[in-house]
Amino acid sequence: MTDICFIGLGNMGGPMACNLVKGGHKVTGFDLAPEAIAAARENGVAVSGSAAGAAEGADVVISMLPAGQHVRAVYTGPDGLIAKARKGALLIDCSTIDVTSARAVEEAARAAGLDMLDGPVSGGVAGAEAGTLTFMVGGSDKAFARGKPLFEVMGKTIVHAGGPGNGQAAKVCNNMILGITMIGISEAFTLAEKLGLEQQKLFDISSKASGSCWAMLNHLPVPGIVEASAANRDYKPGFAAAMMHKDLKLSQEAASQAGAATPLGAEAAALYTMFVNAGNGGLDYSAIIKMIRGK
Ligand code: NAD
Known about the structure:
Strand content: 5-15%
Number of strands: 9
Shape: elongated
Order of helices and strands: EHEHEHEHHEHEEHEHEHHHHHH
CATH class of the largest domain: Alpha Beta
CATH topology of the largest domain: Rossmann fold
CATH architecture of the largest domain: 3-Layer(aba) Sandwich
Bound molecules: nicotinamide-adenine-dinucleotide
Number of domains: 2
Strand order of the largest sheet: 3-2-1-4-5-6
Distance between the termini: 53 Å
Largest sheet: 6 strands, parallel
Structural class: alpha/beta
CATH superfamily of the largest domain: NAD(P)-binding Rossmann-like Domain
């Protein structure tokens, strides 16, 4: 049994903490939102009145927070988790944040003698609930070996992506591919419609030809063909367009800092900005086909 502190008990963190409890670990949590605290308490998470209080004596601190600014605020500074965690504790941030913040916080942890991993996830709320998340992990070999047994409680696929920040790098690169391919699929299926080519026929051909890709096979943006598609449920997410928008913006921040040319990533970010600004952030990301169809 590991004594775990869990900060950020929202849509993702709540079920992840719950799975750690089910896995036989002692979990003490903290969140700013009373409803998140109440739900976690019902699932067997002990609750503390502060992040520092939850971290007291914990072997491992895990966080699942909205963005880089929250992660920096929670970990650094005189009352931050790096200052308050016990000597030898392992820190794991599972939030999706910018690579620069992930590396800066890990550096601060290392300066204080603490191991830290970035372990963003894919798989969404359903994956968090089922304990089938994919973890993309950045950090030292030693820290990864320490964290792996806990990732295995919360997820199914655990990949060590390299040094600090590489988990976040993997996440933004992967989701940039996903955003770009979803737009490409949406354009092709819209064009097919206008050319009088049946959607099912294009799928039958393309899914077995060189146009095939993961998003087409799993998240086809047109209804009635791929069972798991959000298009069959009026684009109820799934993976919300607001989340894709966030990840594409992070990819562009990273590209700009690294001096990488990602013109299609930039275009995808711009298209999702328009889509989300038009009030569609709560729809599945595949609903971008509506905008491409001009609807
Ligand atoms: P959420 O908003 O449901 O949960 C975040 C929680 O953090 C909230 O309950 C909030 O009150 C809490 N919080 C914020 N600041 C805090 C602080 N200073 N101290 C303590 N608690 C604080 O968001 P979510 O959907 O759980 O997403 C969390 C992270 O996971 C994000 O980085 C997101 O990009 C990533 N992610 C989400 C999904 C998804 O499908 N929801 C999928 C993959 C990755």
